[in-house]
TrEMBL record:
NCBIfam families, per database record: pept_deformyl (TIGR00079), PRK00150.1-3 (NF001159)
GO biological process: one example: translation
Protein name: Peptide deformylase
Keyword NADP recorded: no
Top-level taxon of the source organism: Bacteria
Function in brief: Removes the formyl group from the N-terminal Met of newly synthesized proteins. Requires at least a dipeptide for an efficient rate of reaction. N-terminal L-methionine is a prerequisite for activity but the enzyme has broad specificity at other positions.
A GO term for molecular function: metal ion binding
Listed cofactors: Fe(2+)
Source species taxonomy: Bacteria, Bacillati, Bacillota, Bacilli, Bacillales
Cofactor note: Binds 1 Fe(2+) ion.
Family: Belongs to the polypeptide deformylase family.
Residues holding Fe cation: 90, 132, 136
Keyword line: Hydrolase, Iron, Metal-binding, Protein biosynthesis
Length: 162
C-alpha cells in the first residue's frame, strides 16, 4: 500500500466523468488499498479515484461507524429519499467548507473489488459521504451545489469556541 497525492481543484481530472471499471484485477486491488490508506492518512471519511488522479469509478468510504471501510466500484445511486442540510469539506478543496443539501437516505448498487454486485443502503452522515463521493465520479464538487461556502479555518475556530 502507498499514500497517493490528493489532487487539488482546479485539476481537470476532478471535472471529468470517471470511466466505468471493467477489469477487476490486482491493479484495482492496489488502487483500492492505496485509496484507503490515503484517505486515513488525510483524516478523510471518503475518497474517489479522481481525487488521486485516476479517472475510474471507484470510491472508498469510512465515516467511523460500525460499517468500517466500504469499497465500491461503479457505484450508482438507485434510490434517494428525504433531505438533509449539513456541512461538507473535501480533501481536494482544502480551504473551503460548505453547507450542502443531500438526500437523507440512499440506496446504491455497485461492485466489490472482485466484480461481485451488491447493494447498500445508507442514511444520515454515511449517505452524505456516499453522495459526495459519487458526485466526484461525475465531475461535480461540493462547491458546485453548496447553498453556502465559507472558509474552513474560520468555521473550525468557531466550532472550537474561539
Amino acid at each position: 500500500m502507498a499514500i497517493r497525492l490528493i489532487v487539488q481543484d482546479p485539476d481537470p481530472v476532478l471535472r471529468e466523468k470517471a470511466i466505468t471499471v471493467t477489469k477487476f484485477n490486482s491493479n484495482l486491488h492496489k488502487l483500492l488499498n492505496d485509496m484507503a490508506e490515503t484517505m486515513y492518512d488525510a483524516d478523510g471519511v471518503g475518497l474517489a479515484a479522481p481525487q488521486v488522479g485516476i479517472s475510474k469509478r471507484v470510491i472508498v468510504v469510512d465515516v467511523g461507524d460500525d460499517n468500517g471501510l466500504i469499497e465500491m466500484v461503479n457505484p450508482e445511486i438507485i434510490e434517494a429519499s428525504g433531505e438533509q442540510l449539513g456541512p461538507e469539506g473535501c480533501l481536494s478543496i482544502a480551504k473551503l467548507n460548505g453547507d450542502v443539501k443531500r438526500a437523507q437516505t440512499i440506496k446504491l448498487k455497485g461492485q466489490d473489488r472482485d466484480g461481485n454486485p451488491f447493494e447498500f443502503e445508507a442514511t444520515d452522515f454515511l449517505a452524505r459521504a456516499f453522495q459526495h463521493e459519487v458526485d466526484h465520479l461525475n465531475g461535480i464538487l461540493f462547491t458546485d451545489i453548496a447553498v453556502s461556502i465559507y472558509d474552513a479555518s474560520a468555521r473550525q475556530r468557531q466550532d472550537d469556541g474561539e
